[in-house]
Amino acid sequence: MTIAILVLAFVSFVLLGLPISYAMGASSLVAVLYNGQIPLNLLVHRTVMGVNSFVLLAIPLFIFAGTLMEEGGLSRRLIDFARTLVGRFRGGLPMGVVLGSMLMSGVSGSMVADVSAISAMMLKPLERAGYQKPYSLSVIGTSCAFSYLVPPCILMVVVAAVANVSVIALFAAGVLPAIVLGILMVGLIHVQARLYDMPRDEASSLKQILRGLKDGALALGIPILIFGGIRLGVATVTEMAALTVVYALLIGLFVYRTLTWRGIANALVQTAIATGAIVMLMGFATIFGYLIATQGIPMILANWMRDAHVPAWGVLVISAIVFIFIGSVLEGAPAALIFVPILLPVVKALHIDVVHWLTIVVLSSAIGLFLPPTGLAVLMACSIGNVKMEALFKPMLPFMAVLFIGTLILIFIPDITILLPRLMELRY
Questions:
Q1: How far is the C-alpha of 49 from the C-alpha of 282, rounded, in Å?
Q2: Sign of CA dihedral 329, 332, 334, 338
Q3: What are the structural domain ranges in the chain?
Q4: Using 50, 70 and 90 to split pLDDT, how confident is the model at 182?
Q5: What is the pLDDT of residue 178?
Q6: Which residues face 200 on adjacent strands?
Q7: Residue 235, class by beta-carbon neighbours within 10 Å (0-12 exposed, 13-18 middle, 19+ buried)?
Q8: pLDDT, tens digit, for every residue of 69-112?
Q9: CA-CA distances (angstroms) from residue 228 to 27, 66, 233, 234, 378?
């Protein structure tokens, strides 16, 4: 009965408009009071333990580094470089959006931030080139969804901490899947460009491409810095996150000279707000997950799947469906913090590679964020573009179909995900 009270209270608080983190904390308090046998001080202890991790220090540091890069104009340089690569092709502008999203994601680490930034930069150029806003927003949103796999992804840090696996291994696992999905997305745009006679963007000379590469090279060096530093044993993920902040400051202040003290102050404020929300969420989610675990829900689920002889791929498909659906209602982090602890014992019992599973979880949560009508990212896209939700349905369908097909490819060919971590000899 305790679990029923917990879930009912949580749903009620969410429907009343309470933020997810507060809803988790309040419903946990209601469940503990109802149970009567769980000491109240456990709420405080578990909440504090949920954020008492050295690895989690990487979250504010990556957020701060990404925000500094945004303030310093790195996003614009990466988008411009992507456009020089594919501008000569028919449909080159939306292709540039896809490539630019992949390049930018490693800087911001946030899909909502990417949707906002790329929409602000690319909607008008796309509109001037003759692309309708619903189509442009569909390209931007779905590109940002799969680009969420490109490190450093904040959700990857969160789920790695919850599942107690290597963050850098999860970062590495996301690279090849992002490339595969990027190829599928560019392929779809190429077919659409042929069918609908889409315009070409400006063709760039080799000199312009090299100039764009030079401008964006320092931003592209961030993943190399992170992977190289950790692989060589120079520093941990958290220490590399701190070095990334220093790197971003040096590039913005002394190389590009576009980062101002006001920009740094704005970045600090944005980082504090985002970190506060994430830390509070993780703390309350810990006690919420603890109550679910103590009621035996993970064991019941594991036994059911074992008795039903659900194969490994079936668990992965079920996980993808769960996180796509939940991600369309909740933001990625709350969904992961609630359901990863529930499903993790099942995954381990069936000997599924945990890093592969978590990669599917992150991708599915990102797809859910852009799934209409309730996904946070799709709501933001509609707000930025000033278009109605129903206008996005038709142009978005082919892109969402590609994301679903890409997810199934990753599920049934796990080597795409785990190849890079194995080549790098990363233990997790």
A1: 10
A2: positive
A3: 2-423
A4: very high
A5: 92
A6: 90
A7: middle
A8: 777 777 677 777 777 777 677 777 788 888 878 877 655 556 66
A9: 43, 19, 8, 8, 35
